[in-house]
Amino acid sequence: MIIVHLITSIDKGGAETHLYSLIKKQVANKNKVYVVFLKGNGYWKKFLTQIGVKVFKLNFENNYNLLNFIKVFLNLKKLIIKINPNIVHAHLSTMEILGALVKFSLKKKFKFFITKHLDSFFLEASFGRKIFLRGIFIDRFIINQCSKVICISKQVRKYFQKKIKKKNKYKLIYYGFSSRDFKSNKNLKSIFKKIRVKYKIHKKDFIITNIARHVRQKSLDVLLKAYSIYIKKSGDSKLILVGNGIENSNLKKLANKLEINHSICWINNYEKIKDIFLLSDVFILPSKYEGLGLVLLEAMSSKTPIIASNSSAIPELIKNNYNGFLFKEGDYKDLAKKMKYIENKNLRKKFSRNSVKFLNNNFDIDKMNTLTSIVYNS
């Protein structure tokens, strides 16, 4: 089978990491796989080429440049005609609309699928749901072109079923996760020492971490406000923020206003992200909404206790007081309380134990691949 995956970027991120895991299995099953992406630094390209995947970049840096959009559409159509795939599978909004337009123009040349990684419509992922131009009409067109829509959680499936009613169109397939492939650096003691020295982290510090794009969806302002309350009532601590994005400067301004910048470690990017999880005492995800949250699976695999907002698909992964704490979405005072509670070592051990069990029982990578193959052949 010849499969073309379309994705907006192949930088480090939840959807991108998921796609690499899926492709690895598809290649192992003797499928010929291609990847086409639009922008970014192409982090996953070297790993994809190592397993025999051909990777193409169509330069498209500006979503609002109509001439560039048309040019990319024509180049993508030409490339797909040349490859002549059985399956075209799109991920993330820009590639969904480009893939749908190619499918519409070529009619029945191939089967078209999309994976919905987030419970939100076109344009809402980074800018939030309270934007003037909502994408429901664009999504309706995209979904009409699909054989099936793969949803990564019950919440994502429920969201689209309610808004765009299409019988038997939506299929739930959870992310598959391989703890074996999620690796840290080998010389951890040396790595930890370097991180501590670079960011002035003391051994007695209670380390709180977030790993996310700095966009409105992730609600990092809520985390900063909660942390400003927490450090007034607790001992020594550090807040590690790994990521970057359009909200970065606003978050730094807020940190200065709250007078907590001296306790924050700002890290734009980190290669072996498991190192950061293993260094941390707790991981916090305060998002407004998440399709699933691969980063939560990474935290579970690292045995890092979790606090997360009770929004979207997050309660499908985090059961309050079983494998983590949930706080009321947007309520920074509630989050500050949970941050204080999780200082308890025995509680953190319980959450870590239960998280590993939950991860192993529910997010099998072979099951994800098998279900995806069934959808392709349906």
How would the blueprint of this fold be written?
Blueprint: E1 2-9, H1 14-28, E2 32-39, H2 45-50, E3 54-57, H3 66-83, E4 87-91, H4 93-106, E5 111-116, H5 124-127, H6 136-145, E6 148-151, H7 154-163, E7 170-172, H8 188-199, E8 206-211, H9 220-233, E9 237-242, H10 248-257, E10 264-267, H11 274-279, E11 282-285, H12 294-301, E12 306-309, H13 314-317, E13 325-327, H14 332-341, H15 345-362, H16 365-377
Parallel strand pairs: 1-2, 1-4, 2-3, 4-5, 5-6, 6-7, 8-9, 8-11, 9-10, 11-12, 12-13
Explain the overall architecture:
The chain is α/β, with parallel strands linked by helices and 378 residues long. The chain folds into two domains: 2-176 and 364-377, 3-Layer(aba) Sandwich (Rossmann fold); 188-362, Glycogen Phosphorylase B (Rossmann fold), CATH 3.40.50.2000. The protein is built from 16 helices and 13 strands. It has helices at 14-28, 45-50, 66-83, 93-106, 124-127, 136-145, 154-163, 188-199, 220-233, 248-257, 274-279, 294-301, 314-317, 332-341, 345-362, 365-377, and strands at residues 2-9, 32-39, 54-57, 87-91, 111-116, 148-151, 170-172, 206-211, 237-242, 264-267, 282-285, 306-309, 325-327. Strand 1 (2-9), helix 1 and strand 2 form a beta-alpha-beta unit. Helix 3 (66-83) packs across helix 4 and helix 4 (93-106) crosses helix 6. The longest helix is centred in the N-terminal third of the chain and has 18 residues, at 66-83. The mean pLDDT is 92.
